[in-house]
Amino acid sequence: MRLPIVAALLFVLLACSAALPDISHAQPAAEADRLIASLKSDWPDLYARLIGLERAHGVFYGALAAGKGKVKESDVYRLMSRRITESDSSSRPDPEATKGFAALGTRGAEIIRRTHAFHREVLAIFASLEPSERAHALDRTIDRYLSRPNVALPDVPKDMTILYDHPYTSFVVEDLTPRREQKYPSLTGFVWASHWFELAAAEPLQRSTDSAERREGLKVVTEKFERKLSAGKPPDAFPTELPLAPSISPELVSAQLRAAAIIDNLNMMEDVLADVMVHPKVTNLRAAIDEVIVQFSDRSYRVVEIDDWITMALRHSIFEQGGPALGIMTESERNSSGHLQHVRGAKSIPPGGMR
């Protein structure tokens, strides 16, 4: 008589466990939600700007895809700018930006969406937690992000030659002088300035625990960013090099190398995607985009040592990448083109493009 009773009890327990939420997944998701909610409530202007910049990138990709690489630059710039000038736009859905990311394919769109959300979580940790609590929280956030490897970028840095050594690069060498040939300089400038802001925002949040100092520091970063969009004289102008974490956010690199590498990988991937989308020799856009996404999400592809990543970023000039977040630089500290590092010496580009 006891066996049927035991069996019945087991059946009830199994049924109850199936009906309960999966706590192992619910707890990490709840932690992420709390972090994002704290950033949104305590730093609403920063949160809105981050959302606006992400959406501006979506508009950019959508315009390039719809125009098959050919767009009216001033119109697209106006649409991108609107995402950060209309203060309440971040609280509303943005179908145009969503459609733009969809042009990159389901996987590409999800990687970009998740990595932007990851970046906001990192900033929320700096903004809301005590310094002694941040390392553990950052590790949890990174592990949660990497738990879906198919839609994540690796937490190890990639060699910067990935920007130049691909079939559709905007990098050209004329008379031994390497340079970027930007088809839409103001659109690229906007995107690079936004990368500068996203990296620079970590500096005042990580450096100080004093609320007034942090808010003043973030005000400085925001004002610098806005001046970069004014087409003035450097450093109050678009960056002329892609901003990278070791140059613009050394506090982030110092606090968590893995997080900095993920964010740099996103920014470099977006740069290569833009090259692909405007290049006239791309015959199969989806295939070319998919190849880029596969390469950047591959943990073993073109990985570089930490010291090489930091050194190469600095050789491309802090000033050229937009200047320090809080300090002042009035002229470039670079005595030769950082791109020469890729065509001469140890980091030369092999013939035939990326492998």
State the gist of this model:
This protein is an all-alpha fold and about 350 residues long. The chain contains 16 helices and two strands. About 60% of the residues lie in helices and about 0% in strands.
Q: Provide a count of the helices.
A: 16
Radius of gyration (Å): 22 Å
Strand order of the largest sheet: 1-2
Q: How many structural domains does the protein architecture include?
A: 1
Mean pLDDT: 87
Main beta sheet: strand number and arrangement?
Answer: 2 strands, antiparallel
Structural class assignment: mainly alpha
- Can you write the helix and strand succession as a string? HHHHHHHEEHHHHHHHHH
Q: Could you tell me the number of beta strands? A: 2
Q: Which term fits the overall shape?
A: globular
Spatial separation of the terminal alpha carbons: 69 Å
Uncertain stretches of 5 or more adjacent residues: 5-25, 344-355
Strand content: under 5%
**Portion in helices:** 55-70%
Q: What keywords describe this structure?
A:
16 helices, mainly alpha, 355 residues, single chain
Describe the structure.
- The chain has helices spanning 2-19, 23-42, 44-66, 73-85, 95-102, 106-128, 131-146, 185-200, 202-207, 211-228, 245-248, 250-255, 257-278, 285-297, 306-315, 340-343, and strands at residues 171-174, 177-180.
- It has 355 residues and is mostly helical.
- It has one domain.
- Strands 1-2 form a two-stranded antiparallel ribbon.
- A hairpin with a 2-residue loop joins β1 (171-174) and β2 (177-180).
- α3 (44-66) packs across α5.
- It is globular.
